[in-house]
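Appendix B, Record 12. Input sequence as logged:
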Amino acid sequence: MQRAQNWENLFDPANGYILPKNATGAFPTGSALSQELTGTNQNGFQEGDASQYNWLVPQNLGALIAGMGGNQAAISRLNSFFTYVNLSESSPYYYAGNETDLEAPWAYDYAGAPYLTQQLVRRIIDPAYSTDAVYTNTPGGEPGNDDLGAMSSWEAWAMLGMYPEAPGAPYVVLGSPLFPYVQLHFDGHTTTIIGNNASDSNPYVQSLTINGSPTQQPWAPVSDLIGPGQTVLDFTLGSTPDTQWGAGPMSAPPSFSAGEAPVVADAGVPAAQVAPGSATTVPIIIQNMTNMPQRAELTATATTGSGLALSFEGPAPMGFNGTSTMLPPDGRQTVQLSIAAAQGAPQGYSVQSVSVSAARPGGGGNSAVPVHAVTVPVAVAPSGSLIDYFDNAGVTNDNNPEMGDFDGGGFTYSSQALASAGLVPGRALSVNGVPFTWQSQVTSPVNVPDNVVSDGQTVSVDAPAGTAQIGFLGAATNGPLEGVATLKYSDGTSSDFMLGFSDWTLNGGSASGPSYGNTLVASTSYRNSSSDMPQTVGTDLFEASLPVDTSKTLVSVTLPPAPGTGAIHIFAIGTSTTAMTGPVITGLSPNTASAGQEVTITGTGFGASQGNSYVQFQDNGNSWGCGPCGNVATFAVDSWSNTAITFTVPTPSGPNGEWAVSPGTQASVMVVSGTGNASDSAVLQITPTANPADYYDNSGISNDNSLTGCANLDGDGYSYSEQALAANGLSPGAAVTSNGLTYTWPNEPACTNDNIVATGQTMLIANPPAGATTLGFLGVSTNGGSSGQVVVHYTDGTSSSETLSFNDWAAGPGGGDTAVATMPYRNWLYSGPYGPTVYLYSTTVPLDPTKTVASITFPDIGPIGNGATSMHIFAIALGS
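Logged structural output:
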């Protein structure tokens, strides 16, 4: 039974839900019911979510109900939960079609409202009683998959008016029988269930006798049902609820509390941040898990060497170095923990602990017994520094490999393997003349964040005068990956560069070496896995540098936005007055250009003449200038010197002009020497336009009668049917109205580019209507649903970000999508028309009606590819 109470370690006292914890021991932030819902799963749950799993502690529902705040709070939550009785596995409602929820309807018996169990169970099983009954007297008239008879046996129990709520417990909970008379024959025993007045309209228990003795208990011992002889359960039923029957505090079914913690607590924030020489407070939330008063005592002592001092706000009780509080039955309190950092406190993470003891006044002495511990990761770092942004635990101890997740699949670097490679916590190291401090600190029982998942954070940089480069320690997952980083100076100017990192496994070992000119910093022979078994896959850590204008003062760097797939992780940032070596690009002139325009690269170390050196130019998946690494289209280098190179932005070439720069995109420019040394990557903005056709970069429509493999919407050879679209009113140039907005369908023939694959392009908006409140999109996602930030830029220089999401084109509408067209098939380049049903969706995001839209930047989801998720935009519209 002691182990059966482990659920309390996952009980969040802030909201009364059982939730997964991350590697730092913190609960998810925000709503418990909206965390990372994907398909049929919420993060941390299988085929369900927090609302559905929350009642799965039948051995101690009494403590769960107390933790929620008592009977009335639990009844209110149950009432909301049963708004729907079979909606889906990823909704905050009951789902009768899955075993996860089978015992939840009987929880009212424990909360003092058995009449609601009687009503609800009848609602679920009896279509003559309820219009939303789940069980019906028809073929297929039971919900879900009847695994081992789970669904059908639940109905049989429900019709009998009883249920074995707690497996292995010697009692059953009671509802109300559907039949007037039932006999159950066991070996040597007969149980008779009498339902006086039983009918479809009489679900409520008015009275109950067991073997002639009246009872107010909505439960019965199993010994009464299967012992020698016979048992008679004699119910009297009615059409109106008796809210008092079985409602008394002593009537509830048994809850097994042996080994439970009478008080649980948690920090109200995932982690704390405090700058050296300052202080902060952290709320500690304490919940009474019993229906009796409890005294909670809290103590906290800072770990040695952390430079921190811990205390509780308010006066401390006499003779006690901490704080205490009285908790009423089912009660919750919050106390404030003060965390002060000395001026010289070492920067980095540490884990502080608050111990919680509990005692019941008058319950056999006043000595409090330790029952719980709260871990509080604390970052000592200036606000806005890299450590302040740490949000991922990517390094784990070999003995606790489940305490981190670097790549989203449960894999992490090994602390021991990195230490063998020279990376130990707090160690100073230098790479390419840039000093770094390795911050990763692995602790038990929890891990702490040790890196930042790059997502546009602006990180403060304390760079001395004359700084010539800024370096980054990091790696990519599901990479290699790169994105735009912006260096900002004290004079208000900025410069953009591509910051890229190699995949931490070098693409599973298939890559010949680091990408983007990265320097290998450390290499290990294995990585840790959340399955506890290390995996023999080489993992690496890299360094990348960007040039800094030595005549200016660098104050911050904005990290690349999150890519559509995978992640860029940054462990440390350093600056140096030592100049970068090899070819170095310091700028482009102009920094915005279009096809056919000449651009000058400025920098150093290019060589007096070109020789075998080259310029590698990349834009939206196309690459020029390097035959082995891109297409073979002509790329013109117009002049070359050691400090300046002039080239012409390539014009469309290749079959049907497929090799072309894309308006509104950010191209990268790199110089590679004849010896293979690569420069940094400067960013060239390709001039945006207001014509959507200029942005079409994918052919997603084919003709049923002339398939030539010309269209490929999803990267797997599937496309929309021109005929099926036309049947839905979607012919080239047609007007399409949805949700009050009118769109123009692409005026393009089948097998030509007709949609925009969202990869972060910026498009101008021509003649936006005044007072527009809504921006609409026609589109879909392929290879799964997709979601990202669309940025709206206004003419006054401000901007706003909104989430743009589309369901998969074969999944059906949901999550804000509206089906504009429904087609019974799609085309496959190998066979023509091919199922399943596919859709086209519309969706909208809000606009500020007091401003005028100048341009929009599409989400950066990523290009199409075999199995790769991508977002496709066919048209946009603005309106009110």
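DSSP finds nine helices and 59 strands in the chain.
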